[in-house]
Amino acid sequence: MFRTMSKKISKFLEFEDRVFRAPYNYLKKIGLIDKVKEIKQRFVEIYSKDEEIPYGGNQMFFGDD
Q1: Rounded distance, CA 27 to CA 4, Å?
Q2: Which DSSP letter does residue 45 get?
Q3: DSSP at 62
């Protein structure tokens, strides 16, 4: 009984894996996933440059310099 149940569970998990990966695989095939990763990397690079700029205070408020 346990072997057949184990086989059924493994078949169900294989089916589930195919069903839930299908949209990701399709988007990867048309190139959308790679483009999103590229854009994300560009934003990370842009914002990492901003972190290197020291805060000099707001000149419009006294005592914030």
Answers
A1: 35
A2: H
A3: T
